[in-house]
Amino acid sequence: VQLVESGGGLVQAGGSLRLSCAASGRTFSSIAMGWFRQAPGKERQFVAGISRSGSRTFYADSVKGRFTTSRDNAKNTVYLQMNSLKPEDTAVYYCAAKTLASTIVVVTTTPQYDYWGQGTQVTVYS
Asked: Given phi > 0 = left and psi -120 to 50 = alpha, else beta, which region is 103?
């Protein structure tokens, strides 16, 4: 599976960005997707996950209520809508994919994911 993120950039605190992750190489509806981020000097952390069907999502407490993940299986794309951005959201954001039999499981930990994108930088300034 190849994953390509886009949509990162520089935004003022309180603003919004939408990240996209386009997948290829495997039937998109057969893979669960996730978003992670990594700030300089910090470990990669889970941000959001979505099941194969898109019916279930899960968020880190730090982004709950501000970020929303969704997927369009017809377009082989997963999205991360980020609202009310804060300077502490500054990081490189990665999408990840995990092949799964279940259509409703959301994967939340780094080691469980099989494939990763190259990342896109999000910088929030105050």
From this structure: alpha
